[in-house]
Amino acid sequence: MFHNVIRTIETHTCRGILYFDMAYLFVFVTVLVTAGASNFSTSLWTQNQAHSLNQFFGKLGQDVAKIQARTSLFEEVQEQIESQTKKLSKLISVLMTENKRYKETGDVINKTITRLLIENETLKSRIITLENNQNSSNTSRFCSFYCTLTAGGIHYNDKEIIRFDNIDDNTGHCYNGGNGVFTSAYSGLNFFSWTVQSHENTPLQSELVKNGRIVASSVLSVSSSTSCVVSMDIGDRVWVRINGMGNLKGNKQSSFTGFTINR
């Protein structure tokens, strides 16, 4: 019986130990499982975080690269600005120098203009003086005349010179009332005009002749007036003559005039 008791105790003891061992094993397995699960979760979390960190650092690297590129571009732009600033400074210096030179040139030009204006006024005065002197000189070398026919009813043959004998003006003494001829004392242009009237109201014609050559002719009429400009040299002669035959009115109704235009 004692052995039975001992065996029972041993049996129960073994069972207790077994139960304890099983409980311990359960706890150990539980711990292992828990630890394994925890490690597995930790591993998954670490992988996710590592992936996120990789993405973050990858993006960070890209941003850093962009910043570095922009920094490099900024440095290049800054260098260009500094270079352009230096060029602009040189250009401003050149412009200031040119402006100073132009200002000095402008002062010289203004002084020159003032001097030229004074000289111009002086020249004007001299020209006026010379013109006055020339006009005074030309007065004595200017030819003009005006003469009329006094006697009326005088018969003139063909090509006969009309002698306008009444001389009212003969500046320069170029007209000869004795033969009715104008002799040029200077080379230049001369203006001539003459008027003839028929004494018997018979149409007649007259001519202006230079050195024997007809220069101008009047119309065939009882009364006519004709004018012309003739270029003459010194010594050239001009007169008025009848073309045909006829009697002229006198009493200053027939006239002959002329004067120098230029020489």
From TrEMBL:
Coiled coil: 74-133
TM ranges: 17-37
The C1q domain, residue ranges: 138-263
Keyword presence, Transmembrane: yes
Location of the protein in the cell: Secreted
Major location (coarse): secreted
UniProt keyword Transmembrane present: yes
Pfam family, one: C1q
Signal peptide: none
Annotated Gene Ontology cellular component terms: extracellular region
Key words, A-Z: Coiled coil, Membrane, Secreted, Signal, Transmembrane, Transmembrane helix
Lineage: superkingdom: Eukaryota
Identification of the protein by name: C1q domain-containing protein
Organism: Mytilus coruscus
